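Appendix B. Raw example, untouched.
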Amino acid sequence: MNLPNKLTLSRFALTVAFLAAIFSEIRFHETIALALFLAASLTDYYDGMIARRDKLITNFGILMDPLADKILVCSAFIAFVGRDLMPAWMVVLIVARELAITGLRLLAAAKNVVLAAEGYGKHKTVSQMVAIISILVLASYEQWGGWADNVFGSAIFGAPWVAMFAELSKWLAVMFTVISGAMYLWRNRNLYLQDL
């Protein structure tokens, strides 16, 4: 098994560890969850970069890399509902979009059509990662001591700026997720309309 595929598999293990940490009652569990999510995000960046650079792209990687990404991101958002860090309706929209696009890609693969990633999809991914990280920072920064309170706790309109940033990032993630999903489904509508 090559290094990119090992990194992809490690993302599954890091997702399990992330979920265990975020629902744990141990001290600093939110900080541990943040560190695990950041580590998993780095494996996502490096497995693709190494695979392209060293020409180690495999069918396993093509299938499992996006699956590992979706499981990581959807697990984080669902966990946020369980921890009252994000409204359920937002997470339902995000998870539904990911399932719909995965279904469309499976339908395309069954017809020997490869659907390339689009620009809006990349914006969606970045917005989701920023939202998850900002929510985790908001949940954990008070555990880091006085310096973090000075950096992240500075008030704007009576609330820590990181709280406002996290709220804005949630809305942007939902917006980019819904728009990119709708555009993707519309542009590739011939794939599913011909089977109706």
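End of appendix B.
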